[in-house]
Please model this.
Amino acid sequence: MRILSGVQSSGRLHIGNYYGAIREFVRLQDEGEALYFIANLHALNSVRDAAKARELTLETAAAFLALGVDPAKATLFRQSDIPEIPELYWILGTLVPMADLENAHSYKDKLARGAEADFGLFGYPVLMAADILLYDSDVVPVGRDQRQHLELARDWAGKFNRQYAPTYDSQKGTGGLLKLPAARTRDETAVVPGRDGQKMSKTYANTIDLFGTDKEIEKQIKSVKTDSTTPDAPKPTEHQPLYELLKVVFSPEEFAALDAKWKSGGDPKTHGYGAFKQALIDGYFATFAGPRKRYAELMNDRAELERLLEQGAQKARGYAAPVIARVRSAVGL
Ligand code: ADP
Ligand code: TRP
Model:
């Protein structure tokens, strides 16, 4: 089984990225041939400063490694090191219906929020489809918000196969030039809420970061939105980001004890929102202290990061070579 996924290097990573994506990457590297990349071409849509773009690329690579992606098991690389990506992007784009892109929610949402509509943003799903299809991957682990992009990639791969592969059987999925991979999301943590209760996202400035300073993290956790339930009273469980975050960060057994306290109410010192925030701070550091230390070490050894990324790119291009050769030949290049 070949597994592929990527994360944009467009900002600081947060615990939503970990629980929604990177944790799954780490699990999957033991189940097959995993390819993970830093989507730094995608990131150019929002990062328009060269030094920052470079820095964020390395930070994202260090984050993958610190959180457990193991270069001995998985291929870790930078999207921009793969020239076959922009090539496949273009070729696929010649078959992509405008309406698919106009209806893509990433584009519609950003327009609705008043963002500039550049061609890069509009073509984003096509670039992502090139990522997905270039390495003959079988499985693409993504958060729920990315599922539509994966569906589009599958649609366009099918279209490409119907157009260019005479032996393609769309029912059986055999005889194609591009392989249609499956999505994989984990439902229990598919959407991690942010401090304000919306989806956690760097775009909404509601994150709990993975690698800020201890002080910043504590401040972020203390600002998780709660309601006006008195400290001794039982707490509501609906639309409560603090409750959801505790569930995400703690193991089911540990959470069960917190859950009982949450629902019973009691001594304000131990049963108020303040106490639950402190529990979340403790749970956060128990989980991430090791990766945070390793991250700092990696960021202090840029040469080693570079070396690992270059080695990853060579391997990834090896996977890409037969696919791009098939595609070029099929379209007449
Ligand atoms: P952001 O929304 O902060 O810009 P990205 O879109 O760069 O995050 O997401 C990177 C990866 O992390 C994607 O696979 C995405 O599905 C996952 N992810 C991001 N935010 C969350 C969240 N709040 N809950 C679960 N997964 C998330
Ligand atoms: N668009 C994804 C995100 O915002 C990142 C990404 C780019 C990706 N290409 C991909 C994810 C291919 C999975 C497969 O997180």
About this structure: The mean pLDDT is 95.
